Amino acid sequence: MDDITQLAAELGRRLQLLNAHVTTAESCTGGGIAEAITRIPGSSAWFEAGYVTYSNRQKTQQLDVPAGLFETVGAVSREVVEAMAQGAQEKSLARFAVAVSGVAGPDGGSPHKPVGTVWLAWGVGEVVISERRFFPGNRDEVRRQTVKAALEGLLQYASAEISNQG
Fold this sequence. Notes:
Elements: H1 3-18, E1 22-26, H2 32-38, E2 47-52, H3 56-63, H4 68-72, H5 78-92, E3 96-102, E4 117-124, E5 127-134, H6 139-165
Parallel strand pairs: 1-2, 1-3
Antiparallel strand pairs: 3-4, 4-5
């Protein structure tokens, strides 16, 4: 079992302990996080929905990301991924969410947002936590590292919820 599948399986175990569901809102990973989660037998017990919103229009239509954000801060930004996570939670009613938007390459980068720049946001109930990461490598490597980081974050926040209940 590869490391991503192991992370997804452990996430499932922890979400089941919490009787909680997760949703994904993905751009640069194109559904890769949801695919990793649904590799796990029985994931329908804890995976609610996956939104692949590659275009800005779909981020707005499917997840209610304010259209004005794209002109002011760009799609690869804290504000957009936080809105994506919140929108996915509101639409799916899942307790946990992860959202990602980034520049996977090989082109599309800029001096402020070079190829490998990714914003991630995790929704945990009413709280949204976000961070900017830089992942080196080619397109596939950037996407894989993003999927792994997204799952690691979900696992961390689910584990914290378990500890808080204990």
